Give the backbone structure.
Amino acid sequence: MTREFTENETLESIFDEPHIRSKASGWWSNLETGEDIELTQDMIDEKEVLVMTEISESVEGKRASLMDDKLPHRSMIEVELADVVIRVLDLAGKMGYTSDSLSRHELSDCPLYQEGASFIRFTKLLNTLLFAFESSEEKYVWMVKMVDDWCSNNGYDLIGAACEKMAYNANRADHKIENRKKEGGKQF
């Protein structure tokens, strides 16, 4: 059972939620046996490429000034950046990182962080951080903090969008195990 979100959520309070929800929905289990899947480098690469797609979708939202198709009261930029954070936190959770990770790594220590970066520059830096650095607690914390910082500085409600998107995803037909098992169903 997943918890209900409140209006007072923070990055710290939701840190574990993406992985808890993803695991409960079977995204970290073998679809046929239900057994837990061991984390491999190929799987890390797969998950990081999915993060890249969310970054790209946020750029498309900016390019075309789109509202989100799943949460139509929010901009596509806001929701896709929330998806970036959801995916990064899910992977971080699988790797055993917790909200304590946030206090161990300062955004100012990230060599790619640029305060006040334009949206396009920010998304380019996120992709660079994603692929130029090995998977680590530090890398994932920097990514989440970069997104949070950019959203805060540009009037986007990242935490609210992330909470709404996780709640939405919990009820998506294409995320249900029985539908994922069908031909054409989502495999990852």
Observations:
- The first helix runs from residue 11 to 14.
- The chain has nine helices and no strands.
- The mean pLDDT is 92.
- Residues 88 and 140 are 6 Å apart (CA to CA).
